[in-house]
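Why does this matter for the project? Reviewers at the last site visit asked to see concrete outputs rather than summary tables. In response, this paragraph embeds two records directly. Each consists of the residue sequence and, immediately after it, the corresponding structure tokens. Nothing has been edited or filtered.
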Amino acid sequence: MIVKKDLSLKENNIHGDFLLPIMKYHCIVPEHFALLPLHWHEEMEFTLIQEGTALYHINLESYEVKAGDLIIITPFVLHDIHQQTTSSMTSDTFVFNLSMLNLKTPDACSIKYLSPIFEEQYTFPYIIHPESPSYPRLLALFHQLNSFYTKQKEGFELGIKATLFEFFAVLFSHGLAQKNYNVTLNSSHSEKLKLVLDYISQNLNKPLSIKELANICQFSDYYFMNFFKKYTGMTCVQYINIQRLELAADYLRTKNLPIMDIALEVGFDNISYFNKLFKSKYHATPKEYRAACKALHS
């Protein structure tokens, strides 16, 4: 099922720039976060788990990943990351836009491979384990991509693009690309979930009820609550609170509004409840968090 029409749900982060739309992210769980909430974006991800373990939810399925695993997430696929109990995880991820590979140029590469990927006509294994026949080459390409990106010697942009083209060549030549002919039950559920997440993201400053969210999916309240928790790993209220707290943290970093006004603007009408949840998530009060952010940039 094509979901590009829901672009307002797209993650707002800008990965790289228009000249070179690729960005590397070094992630440590739980130091950077214990939970990366469910989201999707139009970029593709290529990840190497460097150390430890974590739980990924990708396209509404659960995957336990461990050191050495490679992860491939195509555009528009729902995904999140959870800490595994008390374990930690370190990973490096490249997020890149297929447009950097001349997606709109009507040549064989675009027509046969890249455009169909963007149109969700191909699926790939989300997790490539070390025992996979394609793993050695894909791992070498990850390190090659990392070298070009990190060292940035003359011509590194060409090296990055060449490596990504080879990355796709390996995926197809090793038979990892599968035609996505049928709309599955999961894709129908995925579409409904994206509509709900989109609605939540656009209405965080308003009261949100289970009934109105359930109506978006045409589910009963009871079925919707079970559906949401099954596919996100948390209750709907927990998810909404996390989104509101992250927006509040962004406002505390970037706006000079009073804390009470920020709490109201992101949907909390009880300042004590807001302070309690914020401290639980960020291990600091909103006032302490704002002061720490200012100190970092002073």
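We now turn to the second protein, recorded in exactly the same manner.
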Amino acid sequence: MRDAILKFPSQIEIGFDIGNKNKFEGAYRNIYICAMGGSAIPGEILAIIRPDLNIYLNSDYRLPSTATTNDLVICVSWSGNTEETIAAYDDAVERACPVIVISKGGILREKAVRQSISVAAMPDENVPARFAVGYMFGALAGILGISDFNVRNINAEALEIKGRDIASEIDAKIPVIYGSYKWRYLAKFWKTLINENAKIPAFWNYFPVLGHNEICQFADRHMRLTPILLRNLDDSPEALKDIKATIAILDNMEYNYTIIDISTGMSVLEQVLNNYILALWTSFYLAKNLGVDPIDTLLVEKFKSYKN
């Protein structure tokens, strides 16, 4: 999977070209992005970089009751066999909403083709969705005609050593990842990548909420927690004060922690993708250090089989 991480930046341009060929030309009130797991990450990235759009992220079997024919529904499933996304797709078609599919194959793509629904067909690469986020985000941007971004400052190779070092700092402890409200999805990305790739517990939260409850867990110095703080020096003064106060508590309680500064001087998309790639490297090397396969998700497959 190291090669998949290294080629991540090139995925975006390829995905954008595919999506742009399926660009939605109509008007819409809201955008509902239906997806699960790694396939949901592109929509979450879009929500970070384009807060001006009315984006609703839907990870359920049905669309919300508020969705109408005036709304655009984009169903994203890397495999094309995600049960929840297929069900949401069926619901959208039944309601006569405009629908576009992003997928590399499977049942979802077959249905869309059969029903003359536009499909942004992803490259048929044998990697998990979390390693193919660049393709799907690029396609999403192309479909929506969002081209005012650049990825010149994304260098996956340059982040590898830092990711390996953070993995060594985590060791066998339980990561708890925190960021400000603006960057909350980044904390979530770290958590889920560590869960799936390294097969260990990890948790996430965001400021200022965690300062009113979760901060209490650090009262016990013997908790095997390793806090990871995602910090952007251009963030609001209030957010920076929250992080500063948390650092003071962690120092007082003698916790080892890691501060990851979100790069400044670049676009929000570049900040997000660089941080995501760093999380990929960290979880990849953490898996290697723990002697587990970062690709295997046996329990996810068992979960699916037990539902049938």
